[in-house]
Amino acid sequence: MRYFITFAYNGTPFHGSQTQPNGNTVQAEMEAAFATILRTAVPLTFAGRTDAGVHAEAMVAHFDVPNALPANFGARLNNLLPPEIAIRDIRPVTDTAHARFDATERTYYYRITTRKDPFLYINHARVAPGLDFEAMNTAAALLLGKQDFASFCRTHTDVKTTLCDVHEAQWVRVNETEAYFVISADRFLRNMVRAVVGTLFEVGKGRMTAQQFADIIAAKDRCRAGHSAPAEGLSLVNIIYPLNIYQS
Fold it and tell me: Which residues are annotated as catalytic?
């Protein structure tokens, strides 16, 4: 049987979401918990990859088991997993459902604060006051639609295409000291959101115009864009799938 598992994690202590040889990851912790409960290795296929320090409020992975899971499986997982990982939901899906390839939309938030606050630093990046949000939103609107985002893709990444279809991209003010950038698309490239945000910061600081931002998109050259924004502000907040992949 195939299942989708939805889970959240604070990425601060992890070297990214997916297994790698040089550090602890979210996948390694989860697969260890699976093996302890089910007494066999259960590989997880994540919907996507997040870098070290990046968070997720609703990551999804699929996995296969020979028999139906017990009703308390999610609770048992939560008891074994570290405090930084929390299981939200486990649902049976069709045998061909794929956590990565069947996703139709993903949404990220990049949260910022101008205030030094020990309760915000985990998932907010601290920035200097004075960003021009109107200018940043004018530039962000240029991201909408299906286009080539090679200028915001990590170099030497093995991807077949750098085309993405962005459905939403805007800054939202929460209060005088906090704001977030929301971006939704059918897919994202490695480091894409942090590169976009870092470049929008240049617009917000008055160092770049909207036209120059458009020129960067058209250039398809990572060297033309700004520095990547810090990891701690970025969170994957939602992934959407077709309803017909879920078992009743």
Answer: 51
